[in-house]
Specification:
This protein is an alpha/beta fold. The chain has a single domain (17-279), classed as TIM Barrel (Alpha-Beta Barrel). The protein is built from 11 helices and 8 strands. Strand 5 (146-149), helix 6 and strand 6 form a beta-alpha-beta unit. The protein is globular. The relative contact order is 0.13. The mean pLDDT is 92. Keywords: Folate biosynthesis, Magnesium, Metal-binding, Transferase. One of its GO terms (cellular component) is cytosol.
Length: 289
């Protein structure tokens, strides 16, 4: 029997339609993430950071227990769950009281099941449902929306990265549908910083409209990524300005969700962007005579 997700009363798609672009606050509970490793491992620290991000405007919290930085050491499902489950226990009631859903950043079906049981309600898979054959069915069982990210085992500078993303997403969508996941519960992520050259990361952002034309919401996570560092010659912790530029560029091309470290800065930038968009609509509706 399909379990009802906490999002059932207000689907992720409905949230995007009502107030998108949404902000997904990153909550890494890993010792080796590229810019904030070890800062939020303790449940008390994770809860405090979650509360801060929600106060600053996070619409979703994304909890991950395995670093995905280049050269990271894979962890077992058991170790991953040891990291994320105490954090979920610490933040689930708080997030629920603020009507903020939690996503679990994992490509392992057993971790997804444990996290969904513990209160998460979205599955965010960096391998687009294509690494673990059971993860899509786990999401379907819980009625959980899925975020399918484009990824590659190896970088290939010669390929058309946007065409590669479209083919990859066609496979992810087929897997999701086969498992019983509704189209309204599928989000696509171009995977900025994963299996791409710096130039391909920029091409992926340029090609967002082609991904958006597939008919699904799009999430972009360029926060503090190395291609931004290469452009502005700054370490990961000093890439906010470049991140804001990349993310507003993505929003202008149809991004529905931004996955971010710096929630307040993004919330303020989006507020200004929305005001400018509204002003343009008002000018169009009431042109000067």
């Amino acid at each position: 029997m399909t379990r009802e997700s906490p999002l059932a009363a207000c689907s992720l798609a409905a949230r995007i339609a009502a107030r998108g672009p949404l902000l997904m606050g990153i909550l890494n509970v890993t010792p080796d993430s590229f810019s904030d490793g070890g800062r939020f491992d303790a449940p008390s620290a994770a809860r405090a950071h979650a509360e801060t991000m929600m106060a600053e405007g996070a619409d979703i919290l994304d909890v991950g227990g395995e670093s995905t930085r280049p050269g990271h050491a894979p962890v077992s499902a058991e170790d991953e769950q040891t990291r994320v489950l105490p954090v979920l226990a610490a933040i689930t009631a708080l997030a629920s009281s603020r009507d903020v859903p939690i996503s679990i950043d994992t490509y392992k079906a057993t971790t997804a099941r444990a996290a969904l049981t513990a209160g998460a309600s979205i599955v965010n898979d960096i391998w687009g449902l294509q690494r673990d054959p059971d993860i899509a069915s786990v999401a379907a069982t819980f009625g959980a929306p899925v975020i399918a990210m484009h990824n590659r085992q190896a970088v290939d500078p010669a390929i058309d990265i946007v065409d590669d993303m479209r083919r990859f997403f066609e496979r992810s969508i087929a897997i999701a549908r086969q498992a019983g996941i509704d189209d309204a519960d599928i989000v696509l992520d171009p995977g900025i910083g994963f299996g791409k050259t710096p130039e391909q990361n920029m091409q992926a952002l340029h090609g967002l409209s082609k991904i958006r034309s597939m008919g699904y919401p799009v999430l972009v996570g360029a926060s503090r990524k190395s291609f931004i560092g290469a452009l502005i010659d700054r370490p990961a912790t000093e890439r906010l300005n470049g991140t804001l530029a990349a993310h507003l560029f993505a929003v202008a091309r149809g991004a529905d969700i931004l996955r971010v470290h710096d929630v307040r800065a993004h919330a303020e930038a989006i507020r200004v962007w929305r005001a400018l968009e509204t002003a343009e609509d008002k000018i169009a509706a009431h042109p000067r005579s």
